[in-house]
Amino acid sequence: MGYRLHHYNHIFPISRTSFSSFRFNLRVWCCSQSGKNQGRMEQIVVHGSESQVVVDDSNLLQKKISAIRLGGPAKLQVIADFDATLTKYRINGCRGQSSHNVLQQEDPEFNDKRQKLYEYYHPLEFDPTIPLDEKTKLMEEWWGKTHALLIEGGVTYIGIQNSVAKATIAFRDGVTELLELLEEKGVPVLIFSAGLADIIEEVLKQKVHRSFKNVRVVSNRMVFDENGHLQSFKGKTIHVLNKNEHALDMAAPLHDHFDDVNGLSEEKSALKKRTNVLLLGDHIGDLGMSDGLDYETRISVGFLNDRVEDSLESYRKAFDILYLNDSSMHGVLKLVTHLCSTESD
């Protein structure tokens, strides 16, 4: 089954109550089989100078945008995946590193061992024939073995800093501006990752050169001794199949003043009152990141970075908005600007 892109020169009209001043070029993906139109599938593709975006149900999206705008920034929170969502999928034509792959141990033998684990377990992560409960056990096994190698190989905090400095990792264009806008509007951001919190925080420090008071990293967190050597990991392991809002119970918050139990409890309680969610992810499984939240309205934004034809059908149905081919974050920035604005803006 192939997809052919038909071009239209007119503009798709969006009502002011939903998109305000947004006006998008209309394109239509047509689903055909063996070159013949056997059934017709149409969806809106927003095409700008830097990206293509697929919106499968524009009426539903308009209703969600109106509802979130009505609630205002005080009821909004953002939940975002990190690898290949906030970060670029490709850098200079090559696959960018994940927050796990960034870390290079001093003894290359341990890097090789972790790479072999990746080559074995990664295909199993996406194998549709493996039942979910069995796949969950495999992911726990993978993460456990990887973390053991990091401890055995003698990771240090200085080594993390050096690894990030040399890493092929970068944020999508527009991410910094998005985080700044959300901080200005007082909208909390939860970064969920099955990677390493210490790596993610170091990437933020080195690539953005600032911290954000509204950002929390929910990921696997390292425990170092007084000499800066990795001793263990804090709490329950977070892997690709269990990273959701329940992980707040497992992970440490980003800032020291939330380390006390009462402070974290108060923060979780405040987040639950923010019942409108903007969710960002690059995998259909990322939609589960909001499972622990009793939300009223959720807009899900997906990034389909690779093999677009293979996954377009499933991704377009799963996400409210779908960005194709490793797009920038500028479209999301415009969306958030609109969601946090008033009718008079």
TrEMBL record:
Gene Ontology CC entries for this record: cytoplasm
Keyword terms: Hydrolase, Magnesium, Metal-binding, Nucleotide metabolism, Nucleotide-binding
MF annotations from Gene Ontology: 5'-nucleotidase activity; magnesium ion binding; nucleotide binding
Coiled coil: none
Signal peptide: none
DNA damage is among the record's keywords: no
GO biological process: nucleotide metabolic process
Keyword set includes Hydrolase: yes
Reactions catalysed, as given in the entry: a ribonucleoside 5'-phosphate + H2O = a ribonucleoside + phosphate
EC number: 3.1.3.5
Domain of life: Eukaryota
Pfam family, any one: UMPH-1
Family: Belongs to the pyrimidine 5'-nucleotidase family.
Cited PANTHER family: 5'-NUCLEOTIDASE, 7-METHYLGUANOSINE PHOSPHATE-SPECIFIC 5'-NUCLEOTIDASE
Stated name of the protein: 5'-nucleotidase
Lineage: Eukaryota, Viridiplantae, Streptophyta, Embryophyta, Tracheophyta
